[in-house]
Design brief:
The complex is a heterodimer of chains A (about 250) and B (about 80). Chain A has about 250 residues and is α/β, with parallel strands linked by helices. Helix content of chain A is about 45%, strand content about 15%. Chain A is built from seven helices and seven strands. Chain A has helices spanning about 1-30, 35-55, 110-115, 130-140, 165-175, 185-190, 220-245; strands spanning about 60-65, 75-80, 95-100, 120, 145, 175-185, 200-205. A seven-stranded mixed β-sheet of chain A has the order 1-7-6-2-5-3-4, sandwiched between helices. In chain A, strand 3, helix 3 and strand 4 form a beta-alpha-beta unit. In chain A, helix 1 runs antiparallel to helix 2 (about 35-55), helix 4 crosses helix 5 and helix 5 packs across helix 7 (about 220-245). Classes of the chains: A alpha/beta (about 250), B mainly alpha (about 80). The interface of A and B includes residues 162, 163, 164, 165 and 217 of A.
């Protein structure tokens, strides 16, 4: 499995780097997109290729991922279990997603240029006001912004403390917030391990929440608590499904 | 409200809001390095303290000087005593 996945991942990465300028030019000309939008589409296609590569080893279940279920310009929040969580975002219907991430993903030099061109938000480098302004601009232009509100990968499988940025951006922009729940990627590749293992991965898109109902002073804190409670409950059910299916092997290691 | 009651109320509010470990609520600890708060949390902390003690502090320059949990205790005690 590891030889297959890592070899093909290396291959599509190298070929992708070579092909990207052509693809970007093609999307810019065909769809009149700007470069950042075109790069985000290329990254999304890369995620879709990843889903094909892992097909023999990962039973991937999606729920609520239909295009009609998800507002295009929304703030996504997702729990974080594995380096590969972001790759599964290739299964979302829209490719116009800007990731708001900490500084460490920008240290992967082979992805750095694409992340910069895609306009990803480096939340540890930008001030909050810069992050908010850029995020709102993206949302008003019809794109989505995705946050990992825990800030880093969970090593226990349980949700950690949520930071407030995503919720503040949703309230400030008036755009809906869409919680995403993912389980099983910590079986595939948890933090601290390099060897992949076959896994059942489930991604569930929860109903969007109207952030305009949280406009009071400190309303983003209430929104954060309610979304976290909803995600905690859903993740428990999803983990139970995985445990039932794998006889306990799908649980966090 | 006694000094200890203020400390307890501050600690409880921060533990609840930021999901901190009550055992970590030592006055000498840095709210950034030791408790893991960031600059955005500081803004939320102000909202939480305002809600807990029913005062307005967001315009106060002293907020920016807060580094430790003990600084918060001292700040709140001073604010409450000036308002009394």
């Amino acid at each position: 499995m590891n030889l297959w996945v890592y070899s093909l991942l290396l291959l599509i990465t190298v070929v992708g780097i070579i092909m990207t300028p052509l693809l970007i030019a093609g999307f810019v000309i065909t769809y009149s997109w700007n470069v950042a939008r075109a790069v985000r589409h290329v990254i999304w296609l890369y995620g879709r290729l990843w889903l094909v590569i892992i097909t023999p080893f990962v039973d991937f279940n999606r729920d609520g991922v239909a295009d009609a279920d998800i507002p295009h310009n929304c703030v996504f929040v997702i729990n974080h279990l594995s380096f590969f969580d972001t790759y599964f975002m290739g299964s979302l219907p829209s490719s116009d997603i800007t990731f708001a991430v900490r500084s460490w993903p920008f240290k992967m030099f082979w992805y750095l240029l694409f992340m910069r061109l895609a306009g990803y938000l480096e939340v540890e480098d930008l001030s909050w006001q810069q992050t908010l302004d850029r995020g709102i601009k993206i949302l008003h232009a019809g794109g989505a912004v995705l946050f990992f509100p825990e800030g880093h990968r969970s090593r226990t499988g349980q949700l950690q403390r949520f930071y407030s940025g995503a919720f503040k951006m949703a309230v400030a922009s008036g755009r809906p917030i869409v919680p995403l729940c993912i389980v099983g990627t910590d079986r595939l590749l948890p933090p601290g391990r390099k060897q992949l293992k076959p896994a059942t991965v489930r991604l569930r898109v929860l109903p969007s929440v109207d952030s305009t109902a949280y406009g009071e002073d400190g309303g983003h804190l209430r929104l954060r608590k309610e979304i976290k409670a909803q995600m905690t409950q859903e993740l428990e059910l999803m983990r139970q499904l995985n445990t039932d299916k794998t006889g306990g092997d799908g649980a966090h290691e | 409200m006694t000094e200890q009651e203020i400390i307890t109320k501050v600690n409880n509010a921060l533990v609840e809001e930021f999901e901190l470990d009550p055992a970590d609520m030592q006055p000498e600890l840095s709210i950034y390095q030791d408790l893991g708060l960031d600059s955005l949390d500081t803004v939320d902390m102000v909202i939480v303290l305002e809600g807990t003690f029913n005062f307005k502090i967001r315009e106060e320059a002293e907020i920016k000087k807060i580094r430790t949990l003990g600084d918060i205790h001292t700040f709140v005690q001073r604010k409450l005593s000036t308002e009394a």
